[in-house]
Amino acid sequence: MRCGSYCNLEKKRKELVFDLRHLEGNLPGLELRMAQPKLLHFMLLCLLYMAHAGLSSGETKVTRAVKEAVTFPCNYEIPEKERTYYRVYWQHDTKVVQAYVPGRRGEDLIDLSYVNRTVMEMANNLSVTIFPLQVPDEGTYECIVQRLVGGQYKRVHKQDVQLSISADFPEPTTEVYEETGYWRMTCSSRQGYPQPKLSWVNNGKVLTSVNTSIFQDPVTKLYDIQSELHINQTNNSLFICSIDYGDSRVSANVTLPKGPDSWSGALIIAATLPSIFFLIAMILLVYQCFYKHSEGGLYSPPQELTSVTTTEEGNGTESPVAHVNSATTSSGRAASV
User: Fold this and answer.
1) For the CA atoms of 16, 20, 23, 29, what is the dihedral angle to 10 degrees?
2) What is the CATH classification number for the domain harbouring 178?
3) Region labeled Disordered — which residues (predicted)?
């Protein structure tokens, strides 16, 4: 089983300790015994530094934003006269980003996702440029240089580049809605990367949201995030909606509107009820008085108005004459016409 640089470092440390002890035994002396701890510590630091340098050599880390351009150097030069003996490949995982193969067209070798987005400069350290960057471009890139030796191509150089992609989330959009018995607050932001984390804070205390949803676009791989918080407070209060992604953060402040105090509402209702009752009583009283007055002033004539026909003397014409049956007046006498 291969244990890598750590096992080699531990082996060298043990060998160093053994050599120092052996030297101390063969050359006894006070000065050597006093210098041994410092010497051992110094040599261990040197070994750790060398191991770290060996592990990190040949790899470059780069961070770029979506839609930007990036250029990776391969840090290798090929004389123009000798290019026919070389092959150069830029790869991302299993995809060929750019390639130089004598007698072949580079466009026929690269992956479709990098067509018309990459350029390799043979005269500039075999560097490759990618534009515009997309989230799927994130990852490790390898520059592999091969030289024709004895009829076979052998690798003579390898350069690794680690690319990280970022897309800034815009300042969150917040809304406040008044519901029955509580306030409902929402916070959202769109089109960012990497995957975000949203939190609500009030007076330094992290609150628990009712619902937080994260959506990643299947094509662009960018994220949208939305969260909802329910609060039953009625006084002015400041809330902070924060979205963390990678090493970045965006936030927005939400001020809860001052709602009517419950005691004030009760007092308003208590003061309004007597007026409402008084108004209803006045309406009933007026209606009752009007009804009695109308009932006492109504008059239905008991007599019946009839029409009779008489004959005028002299011309023989007939004319209607009104006749009212007799009725008893309020004085007890009969009235007639």
Assistant:
1) 160
2) 2.60.40.10
3) 303-337
Residue 78: count other Cβ atoms within 10 Å of its Cβ: 21
Tell me whether strands 305-311 and 182-192 are parallel, antiparallel or unpaired.
Answer: unpaired
Residues 184 and 244 in one domain: yes
Compute the distance between CA of residue 334 and CA of residue 302 in angstroms, rounded to an integer: 12
Same domain, 160 and 63: yes
* Domain shared by 155 and 72, yes or no: yes
Tokens 């002396």 belong to which residue? 29
Residue 328's domain spans which residues?
300-337
CA separation for the pair 295, 280 (Å, rounded): 23
CB 303 within 8 A of CB 327: yes
Domain boundary among 148, 166, 184: 166
What's this model's pTM, rounded to 2 decimal places?
0.60
Task: Provide CB contacts within 8 A for 137, sequence distance 6+.
Answer: 92, 130, 163, 165
Overall size of the chain counted in residues: 337
pLDDT at 25 (0 to 100): 53
Run of H or E residues at 3: none
Q: Rounded distance, CA 85 to CA 102, Å?
A: 8
Q: 133, 97 in Cβ contact below 8 A?
A: no
HSE-CB for 118 with a 13 A CA cutoff: 26
Amino acid 309: pLDDT: 44
Are residues 101 and 24 both part of a single domain? no
Q: How far apart are CA 47 and CA 319, in angstroms?
A: 147
Residues in a beta bridge with 98 = 90
DSSP annotation of 110: S
Helix (H, G, I), strand (E, B) or coil at 281: helix
Residues 158 and 69 reside in one and the same domain: yes
Asked if residue 183 lies in contact with residue 233, where contact means CB atoms within 8 angstroms, the answer is: yes
Segments in the chain below pLDDT 70:
1-58, 234-235, 258-271, 291-337
DSSP 189: E
Clarify whether residues 80 and 135 are in a common domain: yes
Kindly state whether residues 161 and 209 are assigned to the same domain. Answer: no
The structural domain count of the chain equals 5
3-state SS class at 5 = helix
